[in-house]
Amino acid sequence: MVLYHPLKGELGDCTMLSNGNIVFSRQFGASEVDRQKRIVWNYDAPPNTEIHTAYPLGKERVLIMQNGSPATLLILSKRDNGIEKQLELPTASSKTHGQFRHVRMTQAGTFLVAHMDLNKVVEYGPDGKEIWSVNAPSAWAAVRLKNGNTLISGNQHGYVREIDRSGRVVWEITKNELAGYPLATVQEVSRLKNGNTLINNWTANLPREQWPSTIQLLEVTPDKQVVWALSDWKDLGPASSTQLLDEPAVPEKGQLQR
Q1: pTM more than 0.70
Q2: 46, 68 in Cβ contact below 8 A?
């Protein structure tokens, strides 16, 4: 689970590789640490930019989404931070913080981008040309599922939607639909191997005094039954990203995207 660090900014994206190393974003950069907590790779965000996506592509490359003017999707070689691919993406404004949170490369080699400030999800080809899009208010995350659909989270709109290629909603959880588990700010969402959906529930639009009465994380079945929910405000804070370590997959091969 990735939380907020008051000195380092938002710790937003996080993946444990099959070798135990962890690749993560930290708002003003991205890093990889080994099991001994040594930094084995690092990239500092240039001035006036932010990084909220850092996702491994194998063990030698990483996908970075660099918010800024212009906003730039980067594929970096971890050996020397050499740029292997660079795509400038459109934004609604130059307000860096609100542009992007979650970008992924699909198994087909395209890029699935949640445009938070443009209120849509767009799939781009390797050349940066748009090949598919769907409206999605305040989209925080988007994941291409194995069935070809796209799982989207709605940030402060508090929804989770599965969309087919025609743009039709085939499954959805709305803000107050789960009795006893209201969604505040939905950030990363994941489809598990068992077909359930893991939802990170942040608290950005709630007064701080209400945080301890909310949940940070929950797993929901396809028929919208809550399997388990986490509320631990003694040791943990609001969660943006979570990886379940018992999920059978090689994360750096994109196998956590189901």
Answers
A1: yes
A2: yes
